[in-house]
Known about the structure:
Layout: H1 13-23, E1 38-46, E2 52-61, E3 67-76, H2 86-98, E4 107-110, H3 123-131, E5 135-139, E6 157-161, E7 167-172, E8 181-187, H4 191-200, H5 209-226
Parallel strand pairs: 1-4, 4-5
Antiparallel strand pairs: 1-2, 2-3, 5-8, 6-7, 7-8
Helix pairs in contact: 2-3
Amino acid sequence: MKIYPLHPWDVSTEEAVRIQQSLACRIRLRGGSALPALVAGADLGFSHTSQTIYAGVVLLKFPSLELVAKFTLQGRVTFPYVPGLLSFREAPLLLELFKKVRPTPGLLMFDGQGLAHPRRFGLACHLGLLLDLPAIGCAKSRLVGRYEEPGNQKGDCSPLVDETGKRLGTVIRTREKCKPLFVSPGHRISHDNAVRRTLECTTRYRIPEPTRLAHNLVTELRRRDLDP
C-alpha cells in the first residue's frame, strides 16, 4: 500500500498538536458509496511489562466478510501516552504494517476515533489521510460530544454532536441491548456511509468483524510473545 508522508513523527507534543490542527482541514467527509471489494480492520495492543506495541491488520471480502489475509508486526513505543495524541503513539507501527498489506483494500476500519476527536483528527482521520483511503473510526467509548441514547434494537442510532450541534459521528446500537459504538468518519466517507458500512460489517457481535478479528489477531500475537 502506498503511504503519503505528510509530516515527521519524531516531534514534541506541542508540535504534534500543531500537525493535527494543520492537517484536519484536509479531511473529506464525503464519499464511500461505492462498495469496497475488500475491507481492512486494524488494531493495536500494548505490553503491560515493556514498551512493546503489537499491530494487526486483517483483510476481509465484502460483503461476505470472509477472511482473506492477516498481517502482524511488533515494535517499540516511541511517543508518550497523551490523550488526544494517540495516533502519534500508534500510527507509525500501523503504517509500517500497512506497507506489507496486499492487495489494497477499499475501506479501512479502526478501533478508535475519527472526526469525534478534540481537534477533529483521530486515528482514523490521520491514517485515512496518510493512506488516502476511505476510513472509519469505530470506538467503544465516547471521547468528545454529546448524544441521546439510541434505541435498544440493532441498527438504532443517534447523532453525536459538539457544543454547537455540529455532527461529529453516530452512536450505533450494533447488537440488541448491548452498549453502543461511537462511529465517526475518518476520511473520504460521509457520516451516513460510515454508519451503513459499519452495520454491514457487523454480525452477531457488538464489534464489527474487521476490527473484532484484528483485535483477536493482536491478542494472539501478544500472548505468543509473552508465552513463547
